[in-house]
Model the fold of this input.
Amino acid sequence: MYILGIESTAHTFGVGITDGNRILSNERDTFMPKKGGIVPREAAKHHYRKAPEIIKSALESAGISLQQVDMFAVSQGPGILSCLKAGVSVGVFLSRKYKKPIIGVNHCIGHIEIGRLMTGFNDPVILYVSGGNTQIITYLNKRYAVFGETQDIGVGNLLDRVGRMLGIPFPAGPEIERLSNGGREYIRFPYTIKGMDVSFSGIETYVKNIIGIKRREDVCFSLQETVFSMLIEASERAMAYCGKTSLIITGGVAANSRLNEMGKRMCAQRGAEFRALDKEYTGDNGAMIAYTGYLMMNEGKTEIRPRPRFRTDVVEINYR
Amino acid sequence: MIRIATGAEAELYKEDGVIIKDRVKKRYRIRELDEALRISRNAREFAIMKRCHESGIDTPRPIKLDIKGRIYMENIAGYPLSSKFSSKNMGKVADMLWRLHSLGIVHGDPTTANMLVSRGRVFLIDFGLSFYSKRAEDRASDLFLLKKALASKHPEQAKIAYKKFISRYKKNSGKEFKPILSHLRDMETRRRYYESY
Done:
């Protein structure tokens, strides 16, 4: 059977198709603001405009037609409301037109499931880091329990905000990574870890005060080292606490090679397993929604509506 | 010297009935950061443990801090609360946490794995993230972390356990409870994706 998944929680509109075992296609287009961050209304407009073309190219590369799709899956949240509305309304329209069932999927669980599929790890701790999300998740008692998370802003959000202070356009992650390679001096930033939770707002304020005094390269270098050390330490705490022996890093920030290197080193030191994910599947994509839709096929029916604050740990998992 | 456990940031050894806690070097962190963190945490943990033990809070007796930064402490024969969880112990946890807070100390990582049950008493361990503070916000952060640790690790009993805990804590803290509670509410609604509607 074929499942078509639609992802539109933030600035990426993605469509993926799966037959349940393999990912047949994974197409996307990302809204790039000319300046500043994501303006919800403009991002949603982009999604509506791009939807037909991306669905078409996803169908083409999977080699099927819309009539052959057996089920639709949409990402319900968490995310930006106006962007979610775009994906959900496109999905609902298609499901009514072709008289096929539709299923709502939690975006974060999509990231987890595609990560498990791609690495082959059965029961890992997942460090999910993106613009808006920073969560340390693991499976426990029919839930993906969130053990650690940010108490204020997401890590990608912090990188973008620092980027803006340094005059780097959105998304700032890749440029910060490039600049950090020229770092020579380590500046001690606030290192805030509370149990398995982290907090980033103190770092933002700190950076605000040293901009223009310290070299850009050193700021980026120290920022990466501090923030990623906090995340890896929190992940390690979760692994020790739950007795899990593998780690997956996913989400947009997982494209950073320094973060992956740290994850690898941490796992090597504790004798745990680590495998870096392909960039194709770390960022937001439609394939993860399609695949999670396939897994959740037999779960109870839920109302299909955007849920901007959809928490990971409220979904009951019966398929594992 | 035999190794008895590997935690998140330290290895525990046992020698002649004494527990030795060794905060190991972390290869993923750069040296400057790693050393600074380990040195400050070792010193703080030892000092706070000593202060707690002298004040009569149930915690292993710290013996010494050697030059290599290893902490020697008394062995407590018991099991972590997380391994055999029972909400019956929550009253004792509340008493202990309030005594700690009234001393001006915040634990920083109050999970059930950091509480040892031994002969009907509950011992608090692992002060690596502890610090001195009397601010209501910091105290609330301890309650918040405990509440989350209960909900994620012991979901079936979390509600009853937390209720038991908080009513006892409220009684202990008296008129200081109100600001702590308001910070706690604030923390819960501030974090991302609080589905209030």
